[in-house]
Amino acid sequence: MADQISEEELLDLARKFSFRSRMDRNAVSGPVMVWGRGSVVRDVNGKEYLDFNSGQMCAALGHNHPRIVQALQESCETIIHSHMSIFNDREIILASRMAEISPPGMNRSMFLTSGSDANEAAMAIAKRYTGGYEVASPMVSFHGMNDSTRAVTFSGWHEGYGPYAPGNYPMFAPYQYRCTFCRERPACDYTCLNSSFDLLDAQAAGQLAAVITEPLFSAGGVIDLPEGWLQELKKKCEQRGALLIVDEAQTGLAKLGTMWAFQQEGVVPDIFTVSKHFGGGIAISAAVTTDEIEERVAETGLVVGHSHSNDPLPCNSAIASIDIILEEVLVDVAKRLGEYWRQHLEILARRYSLIGDIRGRGLLQGIELVEDKSTKEPAFRKGQEIGRTCMDNGLIFSLRRRGSVFRFVPPFTTTEDQMDLAAEILDHAFRQVTAST
Ligand SMILES: Cc1ncc(COP(=O)(O)O)c(C=O)c1O
After folding, report:
1. Closest Cα partner for 169 from 140, 196, 147?
2. Which atom number of ligand 1 is nearest to the Cα of residue 113?
3. Residue 129 and residue 295: Cα distance in Å, rounded?
4. How many Å from the N-terminal Cα to the C-terminal Cα in the chain?
5. Hey, whose CA ends up nearest to atom 4 of ligand 1?
6. CA of 115, closest atom in ligand 1
7. What pLDDT digit, counting tens, does each position of 368-410 carry?
8. Full-model pTM
9. Which portions of the chain are predicted below pLDDT 70?
10. Domains by residue range for the chain, with CATH
């Protein structure tokens, strides 16, 4: 259908009928995408782009992976949708497969649709389990845009939606590149964390149910955790009887070179959530926890779910995505490709003083642009110009922190040649923008 309608006609329709409430681009403008395979997407004019954002990070296994397509076809032959309270075979198989790839004892999975749903469910579980209601989260963490997750998302998109339910608190972010606590110190000494808990203890009602955090802050600017920080956080939660929820939407399922990012921190959370490429491009999410937590909340009447919870079609896609992750050994792919891409970023950083910092791991890496390395003034405008030029030249990636951070999430299917080409497009854009200013 779409290839019979021109871009201009489609955009005219969008101007009349589409709701402009998007996260990064609110203008109605091209490109308009119509096709995707592996790491490449094509717009309605036939122009191809390297997709270093993996769609909205959900196509990290590659666009239209044949195994996912096959799983969808199987569901079309059997059953697409089912009753959320009557078991279906796909959700049971998926729950058992999740237990295989989760830490020992984290055997219980609940399936929902979006990352926001899964985080909302995780917080509901923590509230029922602890009897508390307060939730804290680092200021650079992102957890979604339903009311309960927006309330604990302080990295932006927070203001203007009226009062939230009481009991949500921001914590200082361990943003080492810009941290004022440890600026003069060789490493993070957790002053940010200690100060956050001093404030939390002072202002909270003593009913902390959970702390929710990403294990690498992606939307907030590709910010790595300082070593040991998550372990310290876990201890502080335990001291207060609160649960630790780790949101693995962007970092889990092999993306950072381990099945889960929290494994790299030597921490096992009480609950973790999964979404994004879990369904290989199909919407499905999960909240995963221990037998003990599941038992207590289920037996005391927890009800969480939506009309599409546990649907066979997305569950079958997620089974296929676990197969792909294990059979194609994607943890190794992420490590190998991540190192290759890192070398390109390092070459660019040596060439352009605009690049102040390189961060991230595996297939989630970023660079921060600064006008001056000593003042670290963010290079918002130049970042936006470079981003625009790259898009024009066929490379898609995400601009964070108002354009001063570039986030790269190439799919696992990306080849070294495609990475070389992406680096060339970036190099050209840096050269053009730095020469004209
Ligand atoms: C870390 C993290 N958690 C949760 C979400 C929300 O997921 P969804 O958009 O599927 O609701 C996102 C979305 O980008 C995310 O990056």
Report:
1. 196
2. 10
3. 10
4. 44
5. 143
6. 7
7. 999 999 999 999 999 999 999 999 999 999 999 999 999 999 9
8. 0.97
9. 1-3, 437
10. 2-64+329-435 (3.90.1150.10), 66-327 (3.40.640.10)
